[in-house]
Amino acid sequence: MSEIKKLAGQTMWYGLSSIAARLINYLLTPYLTYASAIKTSDYGKMGLVYAAIPILNIIFTYGFETAYFRFAAKEENKKTIYSTAFISLFASTIFFTVVLWFNQGAIGKTIGINDIPQLIQLSIFIIAFDTLAAIPFARLRQQGKPVKFAFVKIAGIIINVFLRGFLSAIVRML
Length: 174
Description:
Elements: H1 2-35, H2 40-61, H3 64-72, H4 81-102, H5 104-111, H6 117-142, H7 146-173
Helix pairs in contact: 1-7, 2-6, 3-4, 3-6, 4-6
């Protein structure tokens, strides 16, 4: 029974951070569309790019998170699996980021947002940083540290919200 209780507790913490991220983004939508310098049509373009980010995250991580869990469970791999996985993802993230960076004009033209190159540039960095965070977050989950996992996730969300508000205020002043 204690294993089920442990699983339920961990699931609550992991789910809480994911729900908090989506809820905060949902609550920020009116602010970003009406109170900031972002036009409603531009917010729609942001939505289009944000829809592509999870797909590109899958390509960038190429299933390494799942492989990490599989191999981290084996005793003989425990000492090297984290560094091996992180170095591999780091190298491939640099490569994919450079490829996207040098093709951002073609990407913008293809999806019809070449008038906002900053959106593509920011998205490239979002994808890269999300990819680099995948293995450290997988390690926290593998080590059974759901509270630390949720704390780091929610702290990231709070920093994100603060920076969005701060940068939106700066844009309005310009």
